[in-house]
Design brief:
Shape: elongated
Number of strands: 19
Number of helices: 11
Largest sheet: 9 strands, mixed
EC number: 4.1.1.17
Distance between the termini: 24 Å
CATH architecture of the largest domain: Alpha-Beta Barrel
Pathway: Amine and polyamine biosynthesis; putrescine biosynthesis via L-ornithine pathway; putrescine from L-ornithine: step 1/1
CATH superfamily of the largest domain: Alanine racemase
Radius of gyration: 23 Å
Bound molecules: pyridoxal-5'-phosphate
CATH class of the largest domain: Alpha Beta
Family: Belongs to the Orn/Lys/Arg decarboxylase class-II family.
Subunit structure: Homodimer. Only the dimer is catalytically active, as the active sites are constructed of residues from both monomers.
Catalytic activity: L-ornithine + H(+) = putrescine + CO2
Helix content: 25-40%
Length: 396
C-alpha cells in the first residue's frame, strides 16, 4: 500500500482464489492472508438497487471499517451508518456529504455529538429520555430518529436487549418529551437483528413504524424518514430476494407517500462475501490413545479466534474450509482439531472437522469472512492481524 492507496489487482470475469494463492508467496508469509474482491461490493450494490429501489442503503461501517471498502462504497454513491466519532471522521474524510450519513447509535458520548454537530451530521437515532435531554443540551438542532425494538424470531445476532425503546409505550413518550424541549423528531428506525431469516419480521416492524409516524404527525412533528435497519443476508441472494419482496410490499402498503424517505443500514449484506481468508498450517500434532491408535490430528493455523475468527463467538455460522489440494475427495479422512496460533487454549477454531491428513505448509481457505471479522481481530499474543490484498474485475 503506497501513500495509503492500496494496490488493486485486476482480473477478467471471475476471481480465481486458487490462482491468486499460487501466484502469492504464502509459504514465505507467516501471516494469514485476506483476499478481498471489491467487485463483490459493487455487485451487491447493484442487486440492492434493483430489488429495493426506494430504499437507500447506508452501509453500517461497524461491520467492516476497512478504509478501502468504505471509500469504494463512498465512490459508488452509497450512504453510511456511523456509530462513533471515528467512523464519522473516516466517512467524511472520503468526501461523503453529511446528508448521506445517519449517526445510528442511540447512546452517544457528548464529544461524539459535538463532532456530529460541527460536521452537520444531523440525522441520529435515540431510544431513551436521557439521550433526549443530552441532545437538547449538545445538539438541539439535530433530527431525532426514534429507534424502537422489533426483533425477528430468527436472527444470528439479536440486538433488542441493548437498543430500541418499546414502540407502543416509550416511543410516544419520547416524542412528547422532544416536543416539550423544542426538539425535532423526523423519523423512526428499528433493527430486526443481524442475520435475520424471518421474513415477517420486517412487516411487524414497519407496522409499528407506521403507528409511530401517525403519532408523531399528530403532535406536530414533521415525520419524513423511515429507517428499516439491517438484518439483510450477506451470502444468500435468494433469501435476500425474498426479504426484499417482503420489505417492499410492507413499505409500499404502509408508507405509500413517496415523500417519506426510506433508508436501511445493511452491513453484512455488502461485505460478508467479499473476503476469503487463507490460512496456513504451521504446526501439527498426532493424538493417540493408550493402544497407540490415532485418535485425531491437531493443526495449528496462523489465524484464530483472537484474529479474524473472532466473529465465531458473535455469529456462530458453520465454517467449511476449502482445501487447495487436487485429490481431497479420494483421501481417507480423520477427525481434525484446528487451533489458532496463540498460546491460549481457548483459541480453538474447530474440533470436529473430518479432513484428509494435512501437512505443515498446507493452506486452508475460508470464504465469506468480510463481516464482523477484521475490526474485531487483535494482534493478541504477538500474532499479526492478516494482511489484505485487493482485487477488482476489469469490467462487470
Ligand atoms: C445500528 C446498527 N445498524 C446496522 C447494523 C448492521 O446490521 P447487519 O449486520 O444486519 O447488516 C448493526 C449491526 O449490529 C447495527 O447495530
Amino acid at each position: 500500500m503506497a501513500n495509503g492507496t492500496p494496490e488493486i489487482q485486476y482480473y477478467e470475469h471471475e476471481l480465481n482464489i486458487r490462482r491468486v494463492i499460487e501466484q502469492s508467496d504464502l509459504q514465505g508469509l507467516d501471516q494469514a492472508l485476506i483476499i478481498c474482491d471489491l467487485s463483490s461490493l459493487e455487485r451487491k450494490l447493484r442487486l440492492w438497487q434493483k430489488l429495493l429501489p426506494r430504499i437507500k442503503p447506508h452501509y453500517a461501517v461497524k461491520c467492516n471499517d476497512n478504509p478501502v471498502l468504505v471509500k469504494f462504497l463512498a465512490d459508488l454513491g452509497a450512504g453510511f451508518d456511523c456509530a462513533s466519532k471515528n467512523e464519522l471522521k473516516l466517512v467524511l474524510g472520503f468526501g461523503v456529504s453529511p446528508e448521506r450519513i445517519i449517526f445510528a447509535h442511540p447512546c452517544r458520548p457528548a464529544s461524539h455529538l459535538k463532532y456530529a454537530k460541527e460536521q452537520e451530521v444531523v440525522n441520529g437515532t435515540v431510544d431513551n429520555e436521557f439521550e433526549v435531554y443530552k441532545l437538547s443540551q449538545h445538539f438541539p438542532n439535530s433530527n431525532l430518529i426514534v429507534r424502537f425494538k422489533s426483533e425477528a424470531k430468527k436472527a444470528l445476532c439479536p440486538l433488542g436487549e441493548k437498543y430500541g425503546c418499546d414502540a407502543e409505550a416509550d416511543a410516544p413518550a419520547l416524542m412528547i418529551l422532544s416536543k416539550a424541549l423544542g426538539l425535532k423528531v423526523t423519523g423512526t428506525s428499528f433493527h430486526v437483528g443481524s442475520g435475520c431469516s424471518e421474513m415477517e419480521a420486517y412487516d411487524r416492524a414497519v407496522e409499528k413504524a407506521e403507528n409511530i409516524f401517525r403519532f408523531g404527525e399528530l403532535i406536530g412533528h414533521n415525520m419524513n424518514l423511515l429507517d428499516v435497519g439491517g438484518g439483510f443476508p450477506g451470502i444468500d441472494d435468494e433469501l435476500f430476494e425474498e426479504i426484499a419482496v417482503a420489505v417492499n410490499t410492507s413499505v409500499q402498503l404502509r408508507f405509500p407517500d413517496e415523500r417519506v424517505k426510506v433508508i436501511a443500514e445493511p452491513g453484512r449484506f455488502f461485505v460478508e462475501a467479499a473476503y476469503t481468508l487463507v490460512c496456513k498450517i504451521h504446526a501439527k500434532r498426532e493424538v493417540r490413545n493408550e493402544n497407540g491408535r490415532l485418535e485425531k490430528l491437531m493443526y495449528y493455523l496462523n489465524d484464530g479466534i483472537y484474529g479474524v475468527f473472532a466473529a465465531m463467538f458473535y455469529y456462530p455460522e458453520e465454517l467449511t474450509p476449502v482445501l487447495y489440494l487436487d485429490d481431497v475427495e479420494s483421501r481417507p479422512k480423520f477427525k481434525s482439531v484446528m487451533w489458532g496460533p496463540s498460546c491460549d487454549a481457548l483459541d480453538k477454531i474447530s474440533d470436529n472437522w473430518l479432513l484428509p491428513n494435512l501437512n505443515c505448509g498446507d493452506l486452508l481457505g475460508f470464504r465469506n469472512m468480510g463481516a464482523y471479522t477484521v475490526p474485531i481481530a487483535s494482534p493478541f499474543n504477538g500474532f499479526d492481524v492478516p494482511e489484505t490484498r485487493y482485487f477488482l474485475a476489469k469490467r462487470l
